[in-house]
Design a protein that fits this description.
With 254 residues, the protein is α+β, with helices and mostly antiparallel strands. The chain contains 8 helices and 4 strands. Keywords: Signal.
């Protein structure tokens, strides 16, 4: 318990230091994960930045897995996990009258390059918005679950956003970037990191970049780009079709 208290205190301090008006809020979003139900292999998965704990059952990637990851990178295909993350983003966006984003290999490469560094701070990459998420993992197999949880956690900030007083706040910066209407491209990467922060152990680190970036301007810009949710019935039927289309395009199943 003492170690966890120290870790949380460090995370809260990192939160105050990592945020800027150009690269969005990174309020820490951590949670204990139950046993993962989504065990889809993650092409491009990153090994721990430091040697894995001897007590952990973390298997090294096989040559076949590495070859698959390389082929996916070369083909710039959307791995199944990221296809689902894109669909989830678009589900939330449609609730707020925003058009679907498309996956962008260049934006994804920017997210990947930063996630692999295993640094709990914003990258400062120019020309993109950025959302960060971290979660403690029991094993490497929990990473896909954490990656999917990231978008949900960012969107939950909607409950704190004041549509009658639009603008940026540290508590809602992830949400406003997810649904920002003028953003059209998404790229994400989920990495395994040992000690993303001191004494944290094995964590999943999710970086999503957005182009063009959101979270800029004054109340008028937010009023246009972050709109109240529409009626759920119409949104649900439309987003179901969107998710299906994304999976068909990527050659995957939901």
């Amino acid at each position: 318990m003492a170690r966890r208290k120290n870790v949380v205190q460090h995370l809260l301090l990192a939160t105050l230091l990592c945020c800027s008006s150009t690269s969005f809020a990174a309020r820490i979003l951590l949670q204990e994960l139950e046993t993962a139900t989504d065990t889809t292999p993650l092409p491009g998965i990153v090994g721990p930045a430091q040697p894995a704990p001897t007590s952990g059952a973390i298997e090294p990637a096989s040559q076949e897995q590495l070859a698959t990851a390389a082929a996916a990178d070369i083909a710039q295909a959307i791995p199944p996990l990221y296809s689902r993350m894109l669909a989830r983003h678009n589900t939330f966006r449609m609730r707020h009258g925003a058009e679907n984003m498309t996956w962008d290999a260049g934006v994804a490469a920017t997210a990947k390059a930063w996630a692999q560094k295993c640094k709990w701070e914003h990258s400062g990459a120019s020309g993109v918005g950025e959302n960060l998420y971290a979660a403690w993992l029991r094993t490497a197999a929990d990473l896909p679950r954490a990656a999917m949880d990231a978008t949900n956690a960012w969107y939950k900030e909607v409950s704190l956003y004041k549509f009658n007083n639009p603008g940026f706040t540290m508590e809602t910066g992830h949400f406003t970037q997810v649904v920002w209407k003028a953003t059209t491209k998404l790229g994400c990467f989920a990495a395994l990191c040992n000690n993303l922060i001191p004494d944290a152990g094995l964590m999943g680190y999710v970086v999503c970049n957005y182009s063009p970036p959101g979270n800029f301007g004054g109340p008028a810009d937010y009023r246009v780009n972050v709109q109240p949710a529409r009626r759920r019935r119409a949104a649900v039927s439309a987003t179901a079709a969107t998710a299906a289309a994304v999976n068909v395009e990527a050659g995957t199943t939901p």
